[in-house]
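Dear colleagues,

As part of the handover before I leave the project, I'm documenting each prediction I ran so the next person doesn't have to rerun anything. This entry is a single chain, and its sequence is reproduced below.
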Amino acid sequence: MMNKQQIVGLKELRENTEKYVEQIRKGKSFTVFRRSKPIFKITPVDEWGDEGSWETVIDFRELNGEGVLAEDILSSLKRLRTNKTN
């Protein structure tokens, strides 16, 4: 597996910010060095905001090996909501 993280000098980053922003958008990460010492890392933001961590609430494959149709789930949720308001 190829290491996506690369090293860049602080001066280089300042002088070519747009070049690095574009590379970060493509998934690359950088460790920024100043005077031969690492000072911070730049990594792409997880657009969903969950940093890749998901919690399984229910696995519908347990009900049916192929899963459950979203329409069926939504209609069940609507029925539940209707029953609670009555």
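The chain has a mean pLDDT of 84. The first helix runs from residue 10 to 15.

All the best with the project,
I.
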